[in-house]
Amino acid sequence: MLRIAAAALLRSSRGYCTSKHGTTQDRISPSLIDIAPEVRDALRHTPQSVVALESTIITHGMPYPHNLDTALEVEQIVRQQGAVPATIAIVGGRIKVGLAVEQLRLLARADSGTQAVKTSRRDMAFVMATGRNGGTTVAGTLLVADAVGIRIFATGGIGGVHREGERTMDVSADLIELGRCPVAVVSSGVKSILDIPRTLEYLETQGVCVTSYGSEDCEFPAFYTRSSGSKAAYNLTSATDAAKIVHMNRALGLRSGIVIGVPIPERYAMDATEMNAVIAQALGDAERKGIYGKEVTPFILSAVSQLTRGKSLESNMALIKNNARVAAEIAVELARIENGSSTPAKQCNNAKLDTANGVGAPVS
């Protein structure tokens, strides 16, 4: 990995925000970023085709070896659609855009002797200054993706306003970063353990365009379940529709992101009533044990997996793979639109049928 190449890419593909005095502002120094050769080449020639992937799902979202297997499969799914995966993390105090297999394995193994820190914007300086490893959250990944010029990002679910957030003021930094970074985030909506209606209101205030994908009635998904009971502002029916929105977002110079809510494949969807009961029990356990802050989400996801006897973990793996496929299709279509190709990218014609049938999800 070449640090000089990273510097050149940041200056050419993203540019710097400069004040009237010519000083740089609000950009990560390129000397702190290592870009993998595969990603570097794509950013030079077809930057639209790169799909960012977060690493907290590896370090804190799933147990080993499911986390490693899922990370490798997700990258392969992105490549199969003709796009380029760029898993983002901090390794040894350096930002990595694109990880080697041994780096993925290092982050995945809790017994490696180098426990990774769950890294959002607030944690980044500490993690890097102390030479630690960090699994980047949605917010942390957005920050880096925007800095190097990646415009599509696939994840499982975004953070949001926590339940009883009006009392605790616990609001995920993901929402703030979405209002700052013009990156399209393909996810299965907001994690079910959160207050989804309030999260959507907060995103609206931040100027974030929220859409459903393949849902004629604009039903916004709820991670483990296909519907949250809340509506998105708009619905996208295909990767072409989504790519056009991403393209126009940039043409308008908007500095806010886009959330594309892709429902979990139907065969892996959980029962909403069952999940609500399980989540309520897990939240109660967290409160009794005094767990708060950034440790809440990993604790509850783990508790939910135990309470559902592994069903929620299977659902989690299925939805992230499906989201990676959708994100890759959008990225390839964006490259086609912006580079003037006359050949349509490989994609399904009916997004609703696609997600309902579980295309791109693991076969059990």
**CATH topology name:** Indigoidine synthase fold
Q: Give the helix level as a range of percent.
A: 40-55%
The quaternary organization reads as: single chain
**Fourth-level CATH superfamily:** Indigoidine synthase domain
The number of helical runs is 15
Total domain units: 1
Q: Structural class, please?
A: alpha/beta
Secondary-structure arrangement, i.e. CATH architecture: 3-Layer(aba) Sandwich
User: Could you tell me the number of beta strands?
Assistant: 13
- Indicate the low-confidence ranges by residue numbers: 11-24, 342-364
Radius of gyration from the alpha-carbon trace, in angstroms: 19 Å
Mean pLDDT across every amino acid position: 86
Overall outline: globular
Strand composition percent: 5-15%
Write down the secondary-structure element order.
Answer: HEEEHEHHEEHEHEHEHHEHEEHEHHHH
**Separation, N- and C-terminal Cα atoms:** 37 Å
Protein name: Pseudouridine-5'-phosphate glycosidase
Organism: Anopheles quadriannulatus (Mosquito)
Pfam family, one: Indigoidine_A
InterPro entries: Indigdn_synthA-like, PsuG
Please describe what this structure looks like:
With 364 residues, the chain is of the alpha/beta class. The chain has one domain (30-339): Indigoidine synthase domain (Indigoidine synthase fold, 3-Layer(aba) Sandwich), CATH 3.40.1790. 46% of the residues lie in helices and 13% in strands. The chain is built from 15 helices and 13 strands. The protein has helices at residues 3-14, 37-45, 56-61, 66-80, 101-108, 121-129, 138-148, 165-168, 173-178, 196-205, 239-251, 272-288, 296-307, 311-339, 351-357, and strands at residues 17-18, 24-25, 33-35, 50-53, 84-91, 94-97, 117-119, 134-136, 152-154, 184-187, 209-213, 234-236, 258-261. The strands form 2 sheets. Strands 3, 4, 5, 6, 7, 8, 9, 10, 11, 12 and 13 form an 11-stranded mixed β-sheet that branches. The chain has a two-stranded antiparallel ribbon with strand order 1-2. Helix 11 packs across helix 14. It starts with a helix and ends in a 7-residue tail after the last helix.
